[in-house]
Give the backbone structure.
Amino acid sequence: MQIQVPFALPNLPDEYGINQPADELVDGINLRSFPFTVTDLPKAAVTVAFSLIDHDTIPVVGFSWIH
């Protein structure tokens, strides 16, 4: 299985971070998760689970954001 993102890691583009335009925030919080593509899944795969825990959000929202 391969997981790919359309930007260079480890930097997250502004549109997926805290620098989201104010009119796109919900109660001051960016709810937009970054895009990713999953390829090369085993043929027998029925379910895929992928999570990212973003500890950089603690100063912003008070907890680690789970994408």
Summary: The CA atoms of residues 11 and 17 lie 10 Å apart. The helical segments are 58-61.
